[in-house]
Amino acid sequence: MEISERAKNISPSLTLAITAKAKAMKAQGLDIVSFGAGEPDFNTPDYIIEAAKYALDKGMTKYTPVPGTLELRRAIADKLTRDTGVEYAPEQIVVSTGGKQTLRNACEALINPGDEVILPAPYWLTYPELIKMSGGKVVVLETTGASGFKMTAEQLEKAITP
Fold first, then answer.
1. Which positions fall inside the Aminotransferase class I/classII large domain (predicted)?
2. Which among 7, 41, 105, 138 could disulfide-bond with 128, CB atoms 3.0 to 4.6 Å apart, if both were Cys?
3. How far apart are CA 39 and CA 143, in angstroms?
């Protein structure tokens, strides 16, 4: 089986390479703080383990609805409303397995082959590859500490091509 041209055009995971390098350096006895894979440095809290056991004991062993269970989406909407003052409905909430997968889904839904996608730097190493996998062309927009590493309206305007 041959992989697609799209897949051939993406780079190997730099996140995994950085993580492997950090582990190797730590194994050599070096004092390392890894900024690689987003693996927590603590075990799953007991209350989460207990909730998972409870759910399994109650027969919750099937797939959940694609956007997440209604109860969870309600709880998230309520928390967002409390925290931000902006009213959210559960129908506006989609629960995912993580940010990277959600961004991948968004790229597939929004990027057409050849579309330019403006990416403010600094960025997470995966972002250009997500854009390329969806057929987009990455346009890096450099930011600085002076702007809080946020792009300005002027920068965005200049980065947009006709």
1. 31-161
2. 138
3. 27
